[in-house]
Design brief:
CATH architecture of one domain: Beta Barrel
Radius of gyration: 31 Å
Helix content: under 10%
CATH topology of one domain: L,D-transpeptidase catalytic domain-like
CATH superfamily of one domain: L,D-transpeptidase catalytic domain-like
Strand order of the largest sheet: 22-21-20-30-23-31
Number of helices: 4
Distance between the termini: 45 Å
């Protein structure tokens, strides 16, 4: 019958150039000639004295950042272009790195781009070989370094935890240590991989948090990885990602429960098969605070015991007849507004007959213990039959948003499909 917040009982890049740049002004002609002359005033075999230097030939391959560049913007990555001919091999790697930078070669083999931003404050070497289009070979090398930013951002938390086994409704919640203004750039750097192709979308819930939700529940026993290529991403003017982040989790069996508040029944299905049905008692209503929310809930955590009190509704005076504070066993949290599925031995007579709780789902002790023991974060608990809908931002009520509205919360305004692991 209790409801309350639980407390566990205890800019564009300009390649560098070398030499003197020819100038059109007449006063600069002598400068140009001087650059072309040898130390003894000879022209170096390029023509008779006083003739103009031959025009520079465009190199068959260009690399940006150019050789010798210092302070290159890491978010611009690396671009290799075959001005003539094609590219055979491109290798870009940080000094001392064992693996090259990931990149993509165009279908016509005339350009290559780094797939992700570079690490800030890092020295790199880019080498390439190819064909010059005239039957010869080409090669080029660029050694450069990226800038050291004055401010950085990092990922401060990812839910679920690394290695965690979760339910089929589990969201992926990424939290940053500072507000993100260039959200599209950051969102684009987040790569999801799964053992099957999964279609979903990111949704920004605030300036420091973005959440991924599949369009439909995860497949049971799916393996999922998040690779955040945030190092070098420009999240705000002068603010770059300090590092990346890699984590992974596994989806367990599918456990989807339904609570019918009108019939006072709760049914649990595992991998689509009904395994338990019991009588329960939901919120007694009469006021909004005592009404269980209807909608798709996710289990967020659990405790045995959990201290529940009337403080959630502002009642702290022990003399107030509405006051309560007690330890509740086998409590599984399903929202941030104080709703749990928990053991309620004091209301066994009402379970299956009437709703008498302050908003929680009161369950028989034996069933509550079983439900608690098998609960994973992200299990689905759908409640029907009440007049109060679950808010999409109440706990992990993300499944309450229609798919189109969920996608609209993406800075890229589009869904994504995971790569295969």
């Amino acid at each position: 019958m209790l409801r309350g917040f639980g407390e566990h009982g205890t800019g564009r890049r300009t390649p560098l150039t070398a030499g003197c740049a020819p100038v059109v002004l007449g006063a600069a002609v002598m400068l140009t000639a001087a650059c072309a002359s040898g130390a003894n005033g000879e022209t170096g075999g390029h023509g008779p004295p006083g003739s103009a230097a031959p025009p520079r030939r465009t190199p068959p391959v260009t690399i940006e950042p150019a050789d010798g560049t210092r302070g290159a913007r890491p978010d611009l990555g690396v671009v290799v272009t075959a001005v003539r001919g094609t590219l055979d091999r491109v290798d870009v790697r940080a000094d001392g790195a064992s693996r090259p930078v990931a990149g993509r070669l165009s279908a016509d083999r005339r350009s290559w781009r780094a797939r992700w931003p570079l690490r800030p404050g890092t020295a790199y070497t880019a080498t390439t070989t190819g064909e010059d289009g005239r039957g010869g070979r080409t090669s080029a090398t660029s050694r450069f370094s990226t800038l050291r930013p004055s401010a950085t951002f990092r990922i401060s938390d990812v839910t679920p935890a690394r290695g965690e086994i979760v339910g089929v409704g589990m969201p992926v919640i990424v939290t940053f240590d500072r507000p993100i203004t260039r959200r599209a750039a950051v969102e684009r750097s987040l790569e999801l991989r799964a053992s099957r192709h999964v279609r979903g979308a990111w949704h920004w819930t605030g300036p420091r948090q973005v959440v991924f939700r599949p369009r439909r529940f995860w497949h049971a026993r799916e393996r999922v990885s998040l690779i955040a290529h945030t190092a070098g991403v420009r999240a705000a003017p002068g603010v770059y990602g300090a590092s990346g982040h890699t984590t992974g989790f596994q989806v367990g069996r599918s456990r989807v429960s339904t609570v019918d508040a009108l019939r006072h029944r709760m049914t649990v299905r595992i991998d689509g098969r009904p395994v338990r049905t019991v009588g329960i008692s939901a919120g007694k209503g009469g006021r909004r605070a005592y009404t269980t929310t209807s909608g798709v809930h996710l289990t967020m955590g659990k405790g045995d015991p959990v201290v529940m009190s009337s403080a959630w509704m502002g009642v702290t005076d022990k003399k107030d007849p509405r006051f309560y504070k007690m330890k509740v066993r086998h409590a599984v949290q399903i929202s941030s507004s104080g709703e749990y599925v928990h053991s309620a031995p004091w209301s066994v007579r009402s379970q299956g007959r009437e709703n008498v709780s302050h908003g929680c789902v009161n369950a028989p002790p034996e069933f509550a213990g079983w439900f608690y023991a098998g609960s994973l974060r992200g299990d689905v608990v759908t409640v029907t039959g009440t007049s109060r809908p679950l808010e999409w931002n109440n706990g992990w009520g993300y499944w309450q948003l229609p798919w189109s509205r969920w996608v609209a919360g993406s800075a890229l305004n589009r869904p994504v499909t995971s790569a295969r692991t």
